[in-house]
C-alpha cells in the first residue's frame, strides 16, 4: 500500500561567519525546514555527498572559495540544485557571475526573517507561499 | 622595515556589515519571541533600531556599493 508523507525541504546553509549561519538556521528551522549548517566549504561538500539538499543557501565571500564556486562544485553531482546567494555585497557576486543562472537567486544581507523565508520558498518552489514540505510517496 | 599587508576594503565592509546584520537579526528574533508585556522589549527595540541606523550610515558612507 502506498502512503504519502511530507518531507521537509532540506537546506544546506554555508557561511564562514558562524553567527550568520546560526541566525539563518534559527529562522528556517523554526519555519519547518530541515537544515544543515556549515562554516567551511569543505564540510558543505562532504555534507552534500551524504544527503540530498533542495537548496544551497550560501554566502558569497568566503575564504576557501566563493559561493558561486561552491555552487558549481555541488551542481556537478546535482545539476538541478537550487541556489540562493546571501550576500552583504551584491556587486561582488556580479563581478564573478555576469548573470545568475537558472535556479539561482540572491538576497542581500541584512535581511529580515520574513524576507529570508519568502526568498527561500521562492527559490525552492517558485512561490513565496510554496510551503516547507513536499509529498514523498512511500511504498 | 616592517611590511604591512594592504587592507582589503571590500572584505572590511563585508565583515562589518555581517556583524551589524547579526546584531539586527538576533534582536529581531528577541522581539519576535518576547511576550507583549516583556519589560525588555524596549531594550531589544533599541538594539534593533541602532543596528538598522548603523547599516544606513554604512550605506551612506559607501553609496556606490550596489548591484548593477
Please write out the topology.
The complex is a heterodimer of chains A (139) and B (68).
Chain A: E1 3-8, E2 10-14, H1 18-31, E3 34-38, H2 41-50, E4 55-59, H3 67-77, E5 82-87, H4 90-96, E6 104-108, H5 113-125, E7 133-138
Parallel strand pairs in A: 2-3, 2-4, 4-5, 5-6
Antiparallel strand pairs in A: 1-7
Helix pairs in contact in A: 2-3
Chain B: H1 9-33, H2 41-61
Helix pairs in contact in B: 1-2
Properties at a glance:
heterodimer, A: 139 residues, alpha/beta, 5-stranded parallel β-sheet, 5 helices, 7 strands, B: 68 residues, mainly alpha
Number of helices of chain A: 5
Mean pLDDT rating of chain B = 86
Q: In percent, how helical is the residue content of chain B?
A: 55-70%
Strand order in the sheet with the most strands of chain A: 3-2-4-5-6
Stretches of chain A where pLDDT falls below 50 for ≥5 residues? none
Instruction: Assign an overall shape of chain B.
Output: elongated
Number of strands of chain B: 0
Main sheet specs of chain B: none
- Give me the count of strands of chain A: 7
Largest sheet of chain A: 5 strands, parallel
- What Rg of chain B do the Cα atoms give? 17 Å
Q: Using only CA atoms, what is the Rg of chain A? A: 15 Å
Compact description:
Chain A is of the alpha/beta class and 139 residues long. Chain A contains 5 helices and 7 strands.
Task: Give a description of the structure.
The complex is a heterodimer of chains A (139) and B (68). Chain A contains five helices and seven strands. Chain A is an alpha/beta fold and 139 residues long. In chain A, the strands form two sheets. Chain A has a five-stranded parallel sheet, with helices on both faces. A two-stranded antiparallel ribbon of chain A has the order 1-7. In chain A, β5, α4 and β6 (104-108) form a beta-alpha-beta unit. Chain A starts with a strand and ends with a strand. The mean pLDDT of chain A is 88. Chain B contains two helices and no strands. The longest helix of chain B has 25 residues, at 9-33. At the A-B interface, α1 and α4 of A face α1 of B.
Amino acid at each position: 500500500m502506498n502512503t504519502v508523507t511530507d518531507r521537509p525541504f532540506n537546506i544546506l546553509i554555508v557561511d564562514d561567519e558562524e553567527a550568520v549561519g546560526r541566525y539563518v538556521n534559527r529562522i528556517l528551522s523554526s519555519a519547518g525546514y530541515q537544515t544543515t549548517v556549515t562554516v567551511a566549504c569543505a564540510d558543505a561538500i562532504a555534507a552534500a555527498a551524504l544527503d540530498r539538499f533542495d537548496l544551497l543557501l550560501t554566502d558569497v565571500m568566503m575564504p576557501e572559495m566563493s559561493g558561486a564556486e561552491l555552487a558549481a562544485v555541488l551542481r556537478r553531482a546535482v545539476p538541478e540544485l537550487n541556489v540562493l546567494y546571501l550576500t552583504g555585497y551584491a556587486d561582488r557576486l556580479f563581478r564573478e557571475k555576469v548573470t545568475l543562472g537558472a535556479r539561482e537567486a540572491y538576497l542581500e544581507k541584512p535581511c529580515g526573517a520574513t524576507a529570508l523565508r519568502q526568498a527561500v520558498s521562492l527559490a525552492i518552489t517558485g512561490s513565496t507561499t510554496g510551503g516547507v514540505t513536499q509529498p514523498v510517496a512511500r511504498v | 622595515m616592517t611590511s604591512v599587508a594592504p587592507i582589503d576594503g571590500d572584505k572590511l565592509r563585508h565583515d562589518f556589515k555581517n556583524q551589524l546584520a547579526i546584531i539586527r537579526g538576533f534582536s529581531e528574533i528577541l522581539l519576535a519571541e518576547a511576550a507583549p508585556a516583556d519589560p525588555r522589549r524596549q531594550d531589544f527595540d533599541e538594539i534593533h533600531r541602532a543596528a538598522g541606523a548603523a547599516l544606513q550610515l554604512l550605506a551612506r558612507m559607501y553609496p556606490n556599493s550596489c548591484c548593477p
